[in-house]
Design goal:
Layout (H helix, E strand, L loop, with lengths): L11 E2 L3 E9 L3 E8 L4 E8 L1 H4 L2 H15 L9 E7 L2 E7 L3 E3 H4 L7 H20 L12 E4 L4 E3 L4 H6 L18 H4 L6 H17 L9 H10 L5 H4 L5 H10 L11 H26 L18 H6 L35 H30 L26 E3 L8 H10 L3 E7 L9 E5 L5 E3 L3 E7 L4 E3 L8 H10 L3 E7 L9 E5 L4 E3 L3 E7 L5 E2 L8 H10 L3 E7 L9 E5 L5 E2 L4 E7 L57
Parallel strand pairs: 11-14, 16-19, 21-24
Antiparallel strand pairs: 1-2, 2-3, 3-4, 4-6, 5-6, 7-8, 8-9, 10-13, 12-14, 15-18, 17-19, 20-23, 22-24
Length: 658
């Protein structure tokens, strides 16, 4: 019977990336050995865990940061090749680095000073490159630094911590950012920037030299509080053989106030270079004192004991790496070795007395000989020869030390380099120069001097000048369309100062950035970026004007920036002249300047009677006088109504009796 094949087909993402065995896993993702079938190269594939892949907000932020990380190419950053999705799997494809993490490297023993400085300098160089392009790591730790087989350091895992800051995925007891290396501002829930990465790298430097993190504890909140309130621990309390300069560098890198730290990775690199040069010079000094170099070894860990700070300061600092050259007569710390105890020699009590007696006898014979010679010369009557005194060797006094001429140090801050040198030269002083970024001092001018102006200095001594390299430039992130909190974090992380301006905008939702200045390009680090944030659509609440007089209603609407359209009509609900209808109704929201229609009851005014036109004078016929014997009108006869047309009377003929 033929056997069945039990092997399953490999998982291939989007028909290109074949998943291999699991390499490592963390709280947010799993990392697999993979194969890029299209290019035929081995890669590392990081796949998000399902609980994070289920959040659209997190995924949007994660992919955005991952694509930004993919745009970074630097020898000390892990290269990101691709970002994608295959079904419910969201993944990042990175270069596969044979080697181990920095955490693995220091698991057994601390590093020598020169090794630690070299690795931290590489990490800082990679981080400086990322910072200049607006990306802050926010979770820098030894576990996120890979060491290649040839000893190069590469920083990995950009974007995860920053992506999480914009989501609400935090579970009780979970701290984003490893608490042993978290900056004080992150521990307090404040925004992180490039100086937060400087603090974390300082904590890594401490662990490289001591074998343990600077702060530790049983619970994460306790460790975080130490970062916030406790001063950075001294390196020399763990290893007194380390130079004071290393301790000073650590204290500044891990300062509680971000303004007191190195303000950029470039400043930290300069301090590391100075520490390396000082350590190398110290090594040469110790080699010259100790003679030809012999076998050297790491300084053993000191047993806990009280350390006298004053004596510690006076002890000569050992060379780089905390290793002191072994030499003739030197102990393990490079100090004069104690003489080895030997068996006491057999005592001869008579020997000192014998030597003392011989010396006294010699001087006695000399005195007797001189007296005998004087007596002999006197007895012969000749004057004794005068002894010529031997010439006394007189030491030539050393030439008097010239009194140094003190001159006041001139103020050269703000002067051009050439003018500052000319001014110092006129005072008989020398100078030493370093360079540093400065946003306030023009390029090529003096940004700082040491010692300060008016300090008394001997002619011939040097003044340290810091020459400005001009403002440090960085790329301004374009945050239009982002929520203000997210935009502020990005701009602050890139080294800029955010100014917020809020205005109404009917096209953009409330809290969203709709404009910024500048919108991109490069600008000096520390300069201001104006961010315009929408307050949403502006609306006006229609006031209640029903029951008001027309004049009162018009005034209320005008105060709200609204127009009134008044019409009149009959009603018995209100008194005359009062508003009894309004449209839109009370407390409705309308746009500024909208029109509100009002209906007002008209006041009843008496209607005047029409005045008749004046009557035209009528010429009346003369009325005949009544004649005797005329017949009066019978009682009850109809009379002409008032106002009727007056007819002229008709003459009646009177008949006389026959």
């Amino acid at each position: 019977m033929s056997g069945r094949r039990s092997a399953t087909a490999p998982v291939v993402l989007n028909g290109r990336y074949e998943l291999g065995p699991l390499i490592a896993e963390g709280g947010m993702a799993q990392v697999y050995h993979g194969l890029d079938r299209r290019l035929g190269r081995a890669v590392a594939i990081k796949i998000l865990r399902p609980q994070y892949a289920a959040s659209p907000e997190f995924l949007e932020r994660f992919e955005r940061e991952a694509r930004l990380a993919a745009s970074l190419t630097h020898p000390n950053l892990v290269n990101v090749f691709d970002v994608g999705q295959d079904g419910e799997r969201h993944y990042i494809v990175m270069e596969l680095l044979p080697g181990r993490t920095l955490k693995d490297l220091i698991a057994s023993d601390p590093l020598a000073l020169d090794e630690a400085v070299a690795l931290v300098r590489q990490i800082a160089a990679g981080m400086a490159f990322a910072h200049r392009r607006g990306l802050v790591h926010r979770d820098l730790k030894p576990q996120n630094v890979l060491i290649t087989e040839d000893g190069h350091a590469k920083v990995a895992d950009f974007g995860l911590a920053q992506a999480n800051e914009s989501t609400q995925l935090t579970r009780p007891g979970t701290v984003w950012g490893t608490v042993q290396y978290i900056s004080p501002e992150q521990a307090q829930g404040l925004p992180a920037d490039t100086r937060s990465d400087v603090y974390a790298l300082g904590a890594v430097f401490y662990e490289l030299l001591t074998g343990r993190p600077p702060y530790d504890g049983a619970a994460a909140p306790a460790i975080m509080m130490k970062h916030v309130y406790e001063p950075p621990p001294s390196l020399r309390l763990v290893n007194p053989a380390l130079p004071i300069a290393a301790d000073r560098l650590l204290q500044r890198a891990m300062a509680k106030d971000p303004a007191q730290r190195f303000q950029s990775m470039e400043e930290l690199i300069q301090a590391l270079d100075q520490l390396r040069d000082d350590a190398a010079a110290e090594t040469m000094r110790w080699s010259a004192v100790s003679g030809p170099p012999g076998a050297t070894g790491a300084i053993p860990r000191p047993t806990p004991r009280a350390v006298d700070p004053e004596r510690t300061q006076l002890m000569p600092s050992p060379p780089a790496g905390g290793r002191l050259p072994a030499g003739p007569g030197r102990g393990p710390y490079g100090l004069p070795a104690q003489p080895r105890a030997t068996a006491p020699a057999r005592r001869r009590p008579w020997l000192p007395a014998l030597l003392a007696g011989a010396i006294l006898a010699f001087f006695a014979l000399m005195a007797a000989g001189a007296a005998l010679a004087q007596w002999w010369s006197g007895s012969l009557g000749r004057p004794a020869p005068t002894a010529t005194p031997a010439p006394t060797a007189t030491a030539t006094p050393p030439p008097p030390t010239p009194t140094p001429v003190l001159v006041p140090v001139p103020n050269v801050i703000g002067e051009t380099k050439a003018k500052a040198e000319e001014k110092l030269k006129s005072f008989g002083l020398g100078w030493e120069e370093t360079e540093a970024f400065d946003k306030d001092i023009p390029l090529g001018s003096v940004a700082a001097q040491d010692p300060p102006a008016n300090t008394q200095l001997a002619q011939g001594q040097s003044v340290k000048l810091t020459i400005s390299k001009g403002p440090q430039m960085a790329t301004v992130p374009n945050t239009i369309g982002e929520p203000f909190t997210q935009a502020s974090n990005e701009l602050t992380g890139a080294g800029f100062v955010v100014e917020k301006q809020e205005d109404f905008n009917a096209q953009v939702g409330a809290g969203i950035v709709y404009d910024q200045a500048p919108r991109g390009g490069e600008a000096p680090v520390g300069s201001k970026v104006m961010v315009k944030v929408s307050k949403g659509r502006q609306v006006v609440i229609v006031p209640v004007v029903i029951g008001k007089t027309e004049a009162e209603a018009r005034e209320l609407l005008q105060k709200q920036g609204l127009q009134a359209d008044v019409s009149y009509g009959p009603t018995t609900a209100v008194d005359p002249g009062i508003v009894f209808v309004q449209d839109p109704g009370p407390n409705e929201q309308v746009d500024p300047g909208a029109t509100v229609r009002l209906r007002v009851r008209r006041d009843p005014t008496p209607v005047p009677s029409p005045t008749p036109p004046p009557a035209t004078p009528t010429r009346l016929a003369p009325t005949a006088a009544p004649t005797t014997g005329s017949t009066p009108a019978p009682a009850g006869a109809a009379t002409q109504p008032a106002g009727a047309a007056t007819q002229p009377p008709t003459a009646t003929a009177t008949r006389r009796p026959g």
